[in-house]
Amino acid sequence: MFVLYFFVDFEKKVIQASAIVQQETNVPITFHPGRNNKSPFEIMRVFTEAGGKSEDVIMSHLDSRLIVYLLHKLNNNIYEFLFRNHIR
Question: Mean pLDDT, to the nearest integer, of 42-52?
């Protein structure tokens, strides 16, 4: 399921419904978050609040979203250091 960060009510309802389906069928759920770095966190918040099991979730594209988000949160100086000295 593709989800934007600021998703609309329909998308929120689909995330909640997928949590219910997971509870009833024990199947893993896959999410394809939008490009906003906070999107995976918001999806998981809605999903787990609806009763979904986080250990049975596959979240696509965490490599590109979370690394940039975490580096930004840690400190912009670290981010600049890594790109200035290690990625050319």
Answer: 93
Do the beta carbons of residue 38 and residue 10 sit within 8 Å?
no
For residue 8, CA distances in Å to 1, 31, 82 come to 13, 16, 36
Extended beta strands in the chain, E state: 2-3, 29-33, 57-59
Name the residue ranges covered by the structural domains of the chain. 2-61
pTM above 0.85, yes or no: no
pLDDT band, residue 78 (cuts 50/70/90): low
Strands 2-3 and 57-59: what pairing?
A: unpaired
